[in-house]
Amino acid sequence: MSFCLRSINKTIQHTIATSRWNLYPILSQVKVFSSPKIIIGNSTRNTSFFNKLPADHLWKGITSVSNAGKKRGRGKTLARKKDLNRGQVLGLGKANMLWPGLSAPIIRGKELVERQQLPEDPEREKKLIQLRDKMGALKSYKLSPLERGWSGNKMPGRSIGPPDPIGEDKFEGFDTKVIEFKIVFNMKGNFGRKRRQSTFVVTGNKNGLAGFATGKAIDPKAALRKAKNRAGQKLMHIDIFRGHTVNHDFFTQFGATKIYVSQKPEGYGLVCHRAIKTVCEVIGIKNLYAKVEGSTNVQHIVKAFFLGLLRQKTHQEIANDKQLHLVEFSKDNEYYPKVLASPTVCRKADEIRHHEVMDFTQYCYDGRIVLKRKKFPIFYTKHKSWEVHLKKQEYLRNLDKTQTYLRAEYGELKSFLTEKYPECRPHKVPPKEKTSEEE
């Protein structure tokens, strides 16, 4: 590319001659060439090729297959797309700081949240490496049996740790478990269909202190954190009878959900709906039976169960209400009567009205009856061979109970003819003689 500057020189000389202005400063900045020069220009690229394309286009280059190739079965062993930002949460890093407005709400309740240092997680880097190693794998990520929830890797039933500390108050000994984890939609006039994650959790210290709450957010982790912290602010105290069960049987209801709860002895376990079992674990109840009737909405089940726990009466309140002694007959105590509470003024037998409910279970259930499934006889009881079997085993009926009674009464198995006929005694196996090696 070449330029000629001779015509420019003539134009400048003509302008100087005809102009009244002083153009020496201008001419001092203009460099006039007497001969033409050749200027060579090279095209340059100031940006990299990789900076122009997003990550999805780059991953597409090594993970995509044409439609014709998919039909022929190609691309089954290609690399899988990996999310290199997985496990990295905005506002949470190695320092593990609590940033208001970023990793925590600005206002919690009536308190303004301040920046604070949370306990360090020594296994943070290890968990990130495990997440990245498992990315792109064909098989799904498996949890250990202790970390699993109600069904596989899904969130309901899983533990998410204690709520975040509020100021100097730390939730030591608390554990939070997820009850419900679902996606909800809300239609807006200006934003359209708004999608959010809804979580329902329950938290407790396994010693009678528990609470539940709901949290909604676009990010699932934010929804879990919000619900967990709200549950920590709504704690309720619940009485636990002898540290393992409820005070008494009770009936509770919320909406269309009805629950009949029964008190059980130690060692019975939690025989109930899985949502009630999860609530009992965080509260500290170990032995319980609960029958759910009607709707099985987990939120209604949890709310109904908490209502029943809070409406429990103490034994003294029951005794004062009925003006009678409250006596316990337990199988563990060989049904020996034990007085649990006595009223200030006790009624006599002639003062009790004929239509009054005296059954303790009916009194606790407020006159309701549990709907039980009808029990049908076992199929083989209708056969003729079963009748023959019963006739053959007739002489052995109650044999175990009779032997136990005789040993307790006489110290040995004997009958009323033993004194007259000493040979009417069971054969005793002689003790085994000890060998020299055993001695």
From TrEMBL:
Assigned keywords, A-Z: Mitochondrion, Ribonucleoprotein, Ribosomal protein
S5 DRBM domain: residues covered: 192-238
GO terms, biological process: translation
InterPro entries: Ribosomal_Su5_D2-typ_SF (IPR020568), Ribosomal_uS5 (IPR000851), Ribosomal_uS5_C (IPR005324), Ribosomal_uS5_N (IPR013810), Ribosomal_uS5m_N (IPR048584), Ribsml_uS5_D2-typ_fold_subgr (IPR014721)
Tree of life domain: Eukaryota
Gene3D superfamilies per the UniProt record, alphabetical: 3.30.160.20, 3.30.230.10
Gene Ontology terms for molecular function: RNA binding; structural constituent of ribosome
Signal peptide (residue range): none
Name of a matching Pfam family: Ribosomal_S5
Annotated GO CC locations: mitochondrial inner membrane; mitochondrial small ribosomal subunit
Annotated localization: Mitochondrion
Family (UniProt): Belongs to the universal ribosomal protein uS5 family.
Self-association and partners: Component of the mitochondrial ribosome small subunit (28S) which comprises a 12S rRNA and about 30 distinct proteins.
Protein name: Small ribosomal subunit protein uS5m
Gene name for this UniProt entry: LOC108736416
